[in-house]
Amino acid sequence: MADIDIKDIVKKENIVYKKTSVLTDNVMHYCPGCGHSTTHRIIAEVIEEMGIQDKTIGIAPVGCSVFMYDYIDVDTQEAAHGRAPALATAIKRLLPDRFVFTYQGDGDLAAIGTAETIHACNRGENITMIFINNGIYGMTGGQMAPTSLEGMHTSTTPYGRDPGLMGHPIKMTELVAQLPGTYYVTRQAVHTPNLVRKTKKAIRKAFEYQKLNKGVSFVEVVSNCNSGWKMPPVQAVKWLDENMLPFYPLGDIKVPEK
Amino acid sequence: MEEDFVLMKGNEALAEAAIRAGADGYFGYPITPQSEVMEYLTAAKPWERTGMVVLQAESEVSAINMLYGGAGAGKRVMTSSSSPGISLMQEGISYIAGAELPVVVANVVRGGPGLGTIQPSQSDYFQATKGGGHGDYHLLVLAPSSVQEMADFMPLAFDLAFKYRNPVMILSDGAIGQMMEKVKFQPQRPRMKDEELPGWATTGKTPDRERNIITSLDLDPYRQERFNRKLIEKYQKMKEEEVRFETFQCEDAEYLFVAYGTSSRICQKSVQLAREKGIKAGLFRPITLFPFPEKQVGALADQVKGMLSVEMSAGQMVEDVRLATNGKVPVEHYGRMGGVIPTPDEIVEVLIQKFIGG
Predict the structure, then answer these.
(1) Among partner residues A69, A115, A118, which is closest to B215 by beta-carbon distance?
(2) Residues of A in contact with B75 (CB under 8 A)
(3) Which residues of chain B are under the pLDDT cut of 70?
(4) How far is A125 from chain B (nearest CA, A)?
């Protein structure tokens, strides 16, 4: 055994996995098992594979992914809460040959930024929107989100979300799919290897479609928030499967017509 | 071809001047009394002339954040609005100041508070000069008093915004926005080419540099404080290099009107009327409201017997006049509100009443 040199093992033909060069070496602040890290990696991989790092501009939201720019190695603007689609609108219109994407959580995209979301989609801005839906406000400590499920316990719905008092969970993705300005609308998840692969395909498409100048590509990623849900990762993934996915079913909602 | 004077509204002049200043984008939302700005731009089709983007946003909130995005990409972007709309933009303006982005915001002021009135007012002085949104910051504020200055201040505002990486506000009012005067425009400036965009802009990370990040966030208190100090230094530099003002018959003046924008035009007539009555009056007109010409106003305090700050407000700039004069001379305020514009005569009467008696 003593004769084995690590250099003999780490050879090109032996490598089955490596970190994409579009992710930085910064240690992510996300909780273990959180879908943000996986989704970041998918986006970075897609950017690397398409060879568009020098043409991509990202918009980070307010929420747990506020520090997206620490991890994805592209030019990035940090938006005010909910305003990412407004930033993206101007950037894309002023630099039309660039790839522009927003990355937003449910509070950002579906509560405070509803107007910006709807109108960017309705104008058919030629951008990619990534929407992380974990049904809770993670960064501020687990308050109710617009997408929190009926009966869901959060720090501001300690007895469960009562739609009669607090409104119903909003299906933003189905909503934007109704608008003529969206070109591709899909709902994905990243809590199993198979779903990661599907989400990557969806995000790849969502970036590729910017070349066609046909409107918004919108990818919802149903995710887990272990800290906010107060569950260990395995339990959270199970809860996601059993509770989130029946209400937020996965799959394409609007696909480009052939 | 030598261009001639044209007759135009202040709002239209601002819009035409924006195109000629080489603006890359205008993002706005309609509100009286400044809707002519976007109407002029959409009719003029600058996207055919210079490639300038014009977009009607879904709200002022969105419009100001479009400015954030556009300026973050290194582009010359602007918006215009009026008081209630400017209030909605304050969050975005604070972020823009915090991210050190160069934008131009024109406020064609109407009376408030609330929905107030659509008539001209100068009641947004505090909001414009003291920050407006949350956090320690200032805008550089230019106050035009004519349609010609609406046009002239547009390229100047872009230059100052980029010089300081700071939002610049053109603070006019419904009177200047709506009235028609002759105006002569500066020649067309070219828009910035891609290679001329500033090095800090998010234009796409090329292999020769680190990624550019536009943000106003820093959770490290010491770094954030260093940034706050950097802003203070920037404002100090503005105070040293950017103070602009005009004086009118100040040389032998014993009493001084201090007024900007529309009020300063009225006060010019008041100076003449006062002098006809044998009162040696003069006018000091700040053109930059931030930085306020505090040294110049302070110096005049040694010469005159009293200063009257004339504003279409309940008394806002008067506080800066008092700070600048530091008790050396009596400073009074006269203002009309709600869209009422004072007459030259009533201003002279107030001067006599407050300082001279009889």
Answers:
(1) A69
(2) 90, 94
(3) 1-2, 358
(4) 12
> CA A188 to CA A198: how far, in whole Å?
7
Residue written as token pair 């959060």: A154
Element (H, E) at B237: helix B221-241
Using an 8 Å CB-CB cutoff, list chain A residues near B61: 83, 86, 115-116
Per-residue model confidence (pLDDT) at position B1: 47
The answer to whether the Cβ–Cβ distance between A57 and B70 falls below 8 Å is: no
Three-state SS annotation for B301-326? CCCCCEEEEEECCCCCHHHHHHHHHC
Q: Check residue A17 and give its pLDDT.
A: 84
pLDDT of residue A196: 98
Task: For residue A193, give Cα distances in angstroms to A42, A196, A239, B63, B346.
Answer: 12, 5, 17, 41, 79
pLDDT tens for A18-45 read 899 999 999 999 999 999 999 999 999 9
> What is the percent of chain A where pLDDT is above 90?
92
Residues facing residue B173 across a β-bridge: B109
**Strands laid side by side in the B281-286 sheet:** B245-248, B281-286, B255-258, B306-311, B331-335
Mean pLDDT of A6-26: 87
Nearest to A90 among B27, B212, B213 (CB): B27
Cα angle A202, A206, A210 (rounded to 5 degrees) comes to 160
Contact between chains at B213 and A75 (C-beta distance less than 8 A): yes
B73 Cβ under 8 Å from any chain A Cβ:
yes
Contact residues, chain A, for B92 at CB < 8 Å: 80, 83
ipTM: 0.96
- CA dihedral sign of residues A11, A15, A20, A26: negative
Q: What secondary structure letter does DSSP report for A72?
A: B
Question: Taking a C-beta distance cutoff of 8 angstroms, is the pair B17, B152 a contact?
Answer: yes
What tens digit of pLDDT does each residue of A53-88 get? Answer: 999 999 999 999 999 999 999 999 999 999 999 999
Residue A198: name the closest of A127, A244, A129, A252 by CA. Answer: A252
User: Is A75–B77 a contact, with Cβ atoms under 8 angstroms apart?
Assistant: no
Identify which of A131, A171, A130, A132 has the alpha carbon closest to the alpha carbon of residue A150.
A171
Label the pairing between strands B103-109 and B168-173: parallel
Residues of chain A in contact with residue B91, where contact means CB-CB under 8 angstroms, are: 80
Helix or strand (DSSP H, E) at B170 = strand B168-173
Residue A258 pLDDT grade (very low, low, confident, very high; cuts 50, 70, 90): confident
Q: Is this prediction's pTM over 0.90?
A: yes
Residues forming beta bridges with residue B25, ordered by sequence position? B53, B77
Beta strands in chain A (DSSP E): 56-60, 75-78, 99-105, 128-133, 136-137, 143-144, 182-189, 216-222, 251-254
Q: What is the pLDDT of residue A239?
A: 98
- In this prediction, residue A12 carries a pLDDT of 82
Mean pLDDT on A203-227: 97
Domains of chain B: 6-194 (3.40.50.970), 245-356 (3.40.50.920)
Q: What domains, with CATH codes, occur in chain A?
A: 24-254 (3.40.50.970)
Indicate if the pLDDT at residue A100 is higher than 80.
yes
Q: Is the pLDDT of residue A172 over 90?
A: yes
Which residues numbered 83-102 in A keep a CB inside 8 Å of some CB on B? 83, 86-91, 93-95, 98
Q: What is the CA radius of gyration of chain A?
A: 19
